[in-house]
Write a structure and sequence with these properties.
By secondary structure, the protein is mostly helical. It has one domain: MetI-like (MetI-like fold). The protein contains 14 helices and no strands. Helix 2 crosses helix 14, helix 4 packs parallel to helix 9 and helix 10 runs antiparallel to helix 11. It comes from Paenibacillus nasutitermitis.
Length: 281
């Protein structure tokens, strides 16, 4: 009897767990699962031949390449510079630190269309930076480079904000002890600090990449929307919707959804592996 009572008490540590779990599943179903399921259901209106013809069209394939490659390279750049920015904000004190820390959240609050127009104005051939790059033969606006810059702008806060709390929790005593024992600073960073930062870095990379793949507002202006060159997949989906081709739009969206899910699954697996390695050490 005592054992059954103790088991009952242990189950009721969190009052209302069953009810809260039910609300959680219902909320996630309404917000996430049902909309995603509708993409699959709408695509079923196409035969396999129609679906394959839609998603393997040369223009669609080119838009996939632009969206995924620019998002990947932007997230990769943010992985490096996001770590650098987070390191400076956590480890150093300097005038204007709080202001810079606040400005990092600006891409979260700024309307994406405003960001796109601002970046296009700056990097256009007659813009402030574009006019200086044009004599060097470097064109930024209306090229994949411009798209990548826009995605770097919106993705940087994801990396910085995931790395910052981990850096703040890292104890400096371990680093100082390693340096006192003769370890080079770079070796200390590689052997002691980097393993702890790898999981949040992967998380920030995944968030920046996922945001970049589906970004529309900040990219549509600076890309130039040239088919086969700078046209992104979200814009092609919007074009299909304007043509009342809902099945074609959902087919393109389905491929993006599956590809993004598989890539994020791989990143989560790598993050899990790095967490286990850190815990083992």
């Amino acid at each position: 009897m005592k054992g059954s009572r103790s088991r009952t008490k242990s189950r009721s540590v969190l009052p209302g767990f069953g009810l809260s779990l039910g609300f959680t599943i219902l909320y996630l179903s309404i917000i996430v699962l049902i909309p995603l399921a509708s993409v699959f259901i709408k695509t079923l209106g196409l035969s396999w031949e129609q679906f394959w013809h839609t998603v393997t069209n040369a223009r669609v394939i080119a838009s996939y390449k632009v969206s995924f490659l620019t998002a990947f390279f932007a997230a990769l750049i943010n992985l490096v510079f996001g770590l650098l920015v987070a390191w400076v904000l956590v480890r150093y004190r300097f005038p204007g630190k709080k202001l810079i820390d606040s400005l990092l959240d600006l891409p979260f609050a700024l309307p994406t269309a405003v960001a796109g127009i601002a970046l296009t104005t700056i990097y256009a051939p007659n813009g402030w930076i574009g006019s200086m790059l044009s004599p060097l033969g470097i064109k930024v606006a209306y090229t994949p480079i411009g798209i990548t810059i826009a995605l770097i702008f919106i993705g940087l806060p994801f990396v910085v904000r995931t790395v910052q709390p981990v850096l703040q929790d890292l104890e400096k005593d371990t680093e100082e002890a390693a340096v006192m024992l003769g370890a080079h600073r770079m070796r200390t960073f590689r052997r002691i600090i980097l393993p702890e930062l790898l999981p949040p870095l992967l998380t920030g990379f995944a968030l920046a990449f996922a945001r970049g793949v589906g970004e529309y507002g900040s990219v549509v202006f600076i890309s130039g929307n040239m088919p086969m060159k700078t046209e992104i997949a979200p814009l092609l989906i919007m074009t299909k919707l304007e043509q009342n081709d809902y099945a074609g739009a959902t087919a393109i969206a389905l491929v993006m959804l599956v590809a993004s899910f598989l890539l994020l699954l791989l990143i989560n697996y790598l993050q899990w592996r790095s967490n286990r390695r850190v815990e083992a050490v």
